[in-house]
Write a structure and sequence with these properties.
The protein has two domains: 2-261, TIM Barrel (Alpha-Beta Barrel), CATH 3.20.20.70; 372-424, no CATH class. The protein starts with a strand and ends with a helix. Strand 5 (100-105), helix 5 (112-120) and strand 6 form a beta-alpha-beta unit. Helix content is 46%, strand content 19%. The strands form four sheets. The protein has a nine-stranded mixed β-sheet with strand order 9-10-8-7-6-5-4-1-11, sandwiched between helices. Strands 12-13-14 form a three-stranded antiparallel β-sheet, covered by helices on one side. Residues 318-332 have low confidence and may be disordered. It has helices at 32-48, 50-53, 73-90, 94-97, 112-120, 135-141, 147-160, 177-190, 216-236, 255-261, 287-300, 308-320, 331-344, 354-365, 374-381, 385-388, 390-398, 419-424, and strands at 2-10, 12-13, 25-26, 56-65, 100-105, 125-131, 164-170, 194-201, 240-243, 246-248, 266-269, 274-277, 280-283, 348-351, 372-373, 403-405, 408-410. The relative contact order is 0.12. By secondary structure, the chain is of the alpha/beta class. The structure holds iron/sulfur cluster. Iron/sulfur cluster (SF4) is lined by residues 13, 16-17, 20, 22, 24, 65-67, 143.
């Protein structure tokens, strides 16, 4: 049985951070029923996949956003219960087989009640967005959370969870990287559950509020210095870098994110969520169109999270059955059904050809410290990457931008900052 992963996009935040160009909506300005209806749409979308999912083992689930924990705890609990109920019906062994269920959180909205509920629902990994402990930097980012609140939230999380990941940001004006690292050092000393850290360089997306205050030129040097300093320091704390922006204690890589970088199958549920199934990549539409796909069903049946369970069989059998059918003996049917579905619903999609897939393999695997495996590349595409890119590889090797170790070709960690330039030279 093949593996598949699921991403659930819950695009609600208290307010928009100044640097944010992700798809998220400020929850405070939305009507009361909006979030409930959105959650219903996600459940209905999951029902769409019932037949498809029967042929797979669900490997990981990632509940991201947005800020999923801004949703009222009891509502989020009902949603998760219903979601996992559907998966249990598809595969009664689902909980025994799954490797990782992560939820993204903001430390500002962590409570004991929430954390206990997440644990009871079977979540086994928490990712928490700290970004910075500097008040000045946080104000520039538009998301100030006090250091005390961050620490008390981590205390609450680690009472129940043994696998915690924290997000930080590098290159932010106003903070001192040494202070941020000192903070991480203290957390690492206090909390054995801190197993993973992501550290992203601040980007200044066009049109965001931060774009009109700071230029990328202003942060460039700071980002380079902080990235190099961070890499050196974090390894002394026992965190191994395994991807451009990700570090972990041995064995605690994000299994879900590795699915993306290893080009494995996943489905994305929710507005703007992307899916990748074999060589088909497709993306759901933005919230208005996404909701439209399910609104008749929700309105006609007066569907709510409370009556959803009693109607599940009816919904599955009469409304959404057989949209995706995967039958290994007639693989063409699978593609045909998938493509009919995504075309019918006007979903952006791309049927990747061999060159596109090879390029994806190159740029995704070179993000990882282990790099690209030449044998796997040859086995999948029947192309000798080393021969095909002989001139480029030798030039990059001379500049120490690329190294070959046994069967793997990789970018040295200190050159990740020019990843785009290096990869640009290696694509087909
Ligand atoms: S919490 Fe994340 S998704 Fe929400 S506004 Fe801030 S950066 Fe955007």
């Amino acid at each position: 049985m093949d593996d598949i992963s699921i991403y659930i996009h819950l695009p609600f935040c208290k307010k928009k951070c100044y640097y944010c160009d992700f798809y998220s909506l400020p929850a405070g300005s939305l009507p009361e029923t909006f979030i409930e209806n959105y959650l219903l749409a996600v459940l209905l979308e999951l029902l769409n996949y019932t037949d498809l999912l029967k042929s797979y083992r669900i490997k990981t689930i990632y509940i991201g956003g947005g800020t999923p924990n801004i949703i009222e705890t009891s509502r989020l609990e009902t949603f998760l219960e219903l979601f996992f109920d559907i998966l249990k019906k598809i595969n009664p062994d689902f909980y025994d087989n799954i490797e990782e269920i992560t939820i993204e959180t903001n430390p500002e909205y962590i409570s004991r009640n929430l954390i206990k509920m997440l644990k009871d629902e079977g979540i086994n990994r928490i990712s928490c967005g700290v970004q910075t402990i500097s008040k000045r930097s946080a104000e520039i980012l538009g998301r100030y959370i006090s250091k005390n609140k961050i620490i008390s939230s981590i205390e609450i999380i680690t009472e129940n969870f043994t696998n915690l990941s924290l997000d930080f940001m590098l290159g932010v004006p106003g903070h001192y990287i040494k202070d941020e690292l000192k903070f991480i050092e203290n957390l690492n000393y206090r909390f054995n559950s801190l197993k993973h850290i992501s550290a992203y360089i601040l980007m200044i997306p066009f049109g965001t509020p931060i774009y009109y205050k700071i230029s990328e030129k202003q942060t460039e040097n700071k980002s380079i210095k902080e990235y190099n300093y961070f890499n050196k320091f974090i390894s002394q704390l026992g965190f191994k870098q395994y991807e451009i922006s990700n570090y972990c204690k041995p064995g605690f890589e994000s299994k879900h994110n590795l699915v993306y970088w290893n080009r494995q199958n996943y489905i994305g549920l929710g507005a703007t969520a992307s899916s990748y199934l074999y060589n088909v990549r497709y993306t759901n539409s933005c919230i208005a169109e996404y909701y439209q796909m399910f609104s008749d069903c929700i309105n006609d049946r007066n569907l709510t999270l409370s009556n959803f369970k009693s109607l599940t069989e009816d919904l599955k059998n009469h409304t959404f059955n057989n949209r995706y059918v995967r039958n290994d003996s007639v693989a063409n049917n699978f593609y045909k059904n998938l493509l009919v579905y995504i075309k019918k619903n006007n979903i952006n999609h791309e049927l990747l050809n061999k060159t596109q897939m090879m390029n994806e393999e190159i740029f995704l695997s070179l993000r990882k410290n282990e790099g690209l495996n030449l044998n796997s590349f040859f086995n999948e595409f029947e192309q000798d990457f080393l021969m095909d890119k002989k001139i480029e590889i030798s030039r990059l090797q001379k500049m120490n931008d690329l190294i070959i170790e046994r069967d793997n070709i990789k970018i040295p960690s200190e050159k990740f900052l020019i990843y785009n330039k290096i990869v640009g030279e290696l694509l087909y």
